[in-house]
Every structure is written in structure tokens, then in C-alpha cells.
Specification:
The protein is mainly α. About 70% of the residues lie in helices and about 0% in strands. It folds into 2 domains: about 110 residues; about 150 residues.
């Protein structure tokens, strides 16, 4: 399932985030050791830890939809530091300050520039014919969704696509608390409930429960993937989540035009959900 791909990418990116302070401060500590014990090694050698950390930071900035120019250019400064002659004490101080700066930039990147996402396939409209057909098929019902529930649907979908399962669950829970029969179609409400339930379990890496939420028979016309009566529990569980996410995507697309740019960024994930 595509959720597994998202989880693996999230794990890899998180490991890279941890590697930045590890390399940066690790190199600084080695530099301090060389300086304190007068080790006959060029004091600039430990700066390579900062070079590696800055390259990782630049990579994490590059794979985000919003580019942080400051983070992207950090490798340039690290190579500049290597090229200039510098005394041992100044080099150690510079390494520590640079390691602190890289850590601050990492936090800034994570919380101001969003998480990594797949590349945008089309900047104006849905490019995938299957996804476009599904969104158009559900338009008559989901266009009645209020602006606030539609925006909530976009936020929950994007958070889930980015692998932020807890944030997706919280967003779905908040949306459910504010929904009423008049503000959103029942199929959208069921979708929020299913995503909330499964996102919470994904966040805690819990196994599939014996009983779980699914769409009622009256929502069959809104589903992109028709459940097969021959499905076992695992297939039924996965299909319920795929359908719920796609209902949220269609609801957001049909009733919240301001969220189209974010939905387009997550279009590849929606396409994978539609795959057999």
C-alpha cells in the first residue's frame, strides 16, 4: 500500500534530520579534542563534519515544495571556511557556531517550509485522467461542502500524504467536532471518521483491529474503489482508508479552490491511492 512508501520516506527523512546535528556537533567535538590535546592534524579536518551536515540540510531543503534559499546555500559557506587559513582556536569556535547555526536552520526548515513532498505534475489542473474523472464524478455531491469543512479535508489529506499521521488524526477529529448534516455531505463525515481512526493507529504503529469503520452501503456511489465481497479483513481495512482519503481529496478540490495548490502538490499520492 502507498502508506508504506510514505512511512519509509518519513523514516528516511527523519534519520537525515538527526544526522545533521550528529555530524555538525560531532565534527566540532573532534576539533575541540584536537585543539585541547595538540593533535598534529590540520584543525580544518573536523570541519568536514559541518560540510556533510550542510549538504544533508541542503538536500532536505531541495526536496520540499517551498525552497529555503538559506538552507540550500549552506554548503557554499562550509567550503569557504575550509578554503581560508585559520588558527586552531578560531577554527574550533567557528565549528561550534556553525553547528549551532545548522541546527537552528534545520528547525526553521522543518516548521516554516513544510515537509518533503512529491513533485507537482501539473500546476493548474489535475493531470491524471482517473483522478480527474473521480473528482468530477463526485462533484454534484461534494460541491455542497462548506468552505470550512472542505479546507479541513484538504489539510487532513495533505498531512496524511506527508506522513504526519497524528496531525491528520487531530485535524479529522477537529473537523468531525464542527461538522453538521447541513455543513457537509455524510460521505465526507464518514471519510473524516475513517481517516481519524486509522491515522491514530498508524501513528502508534498498531496492528489492524478486529472491527473498524467502513463506509455504509449508501455511500457506495461516492467511492473510488468498490469493496469486493471476497475481500478479507486486511483488504477491506486498506480499501476503506484509500476511499476515505480520496473522498477528502475530492471534497477539498470541489469546494475549496484556495487549497488547489496544496492538493496539486499531493496529486501523485492521490494517484497511488487510485491504483488497483
Amino acid at each position: 500500500m502507498s502508506v508504506d512508501i510514505i512511512k519509509k520516506a518519513k523514516t528516511m527523512n527523519r534519520s537525515l534530520e538527526y544526522a545533521i546535528p550528529l555530524f555538525a556537533f560531532g565534527g566540532a567535538l573532534i576539533g575541540i579534542f584536537f585543539w585541547m590535546y595538540n593533535v598534529p592534524v590540520d584543525i580544518r579536518v573536523p570541519i568536514f563534519g559541518c560540510v556533510i551536515a550542510s549538504c544533508i540540510l541542503a538536500y532536505l531543503a531541495w526536496i520540499r515544495p517551498r525552497k529555503d534559499i538559506v538552507a540550500l546555500t549552506t554548503p557554499i559557506y562550509s567550503f569557504i571556511f575550509l578554503g581560508f587559513p585559520i588558527d586552531n582556536f578560531s577554527a574550533v569556535v567557528l565549528e561550534v557556531l556553525y553547528a549551532v547555526s545548522l541546527s537552528i536552520l534545520l528547525v526553521r526548515l522543518k516548521y516554516r517550509f513544510g515537509v518533503a513532498s512529491a513533485p507537482v505534475l501539473d500546476k493548474k489542473e489535475l493531470a491524471d485522467p482517473l483522478l480527474k474523472s473521480y473528482v468530477e464524478k463526485t462533484r454534484d455531491v461534494l460541491v455542497l461542502t462548506g468552505a470550512e469543512p472542505a479546507h479541513s479535508a484538504a489539510v487532513v489529506f495533505v498531512r496524511f500524504a506527508e506522513g504526519e499521521f497524528l496531525a491528520a488524526a487531530r485535524g479529522a477529529e477537529s473537523a468531525i467536532a464542527h461538522l453538521s448534516d447541513a455543513s457537509a455531505p455524510r460521505s465526507l463525515q464518514h471519510a473524516f471518521a475513517i481517516v481519524k481512526e486509522q491515522s491514530e493507529r498508524l501513528d502508534k504503529s498498531l496492528v489492524q483491529p478486529e472491527s473498524f469503520l467502513v463506509f455504509p452501503p449508501e455511500d457506495a456511489g461516492m467511492l473510488a474503489k468498490v469493496p469486493d465481497p471476497k475481500f478479507g479483513k486486511p483488504e477491506e481495512y486498506d480499501t476503506a482508508l484509500d476511499n476515505a482519503l480520496l473522498v477528502l481529496y475530492a471534497g477539498a478540490w470541489n469546494a475549496s479552490e484556495t487549497d488547489h495548490p496544496h492538493l496539486l502538490e499531493c496529486q501523485p499520492f492521490a494517484q497511488r491511492l487510485l491504483a488497483p
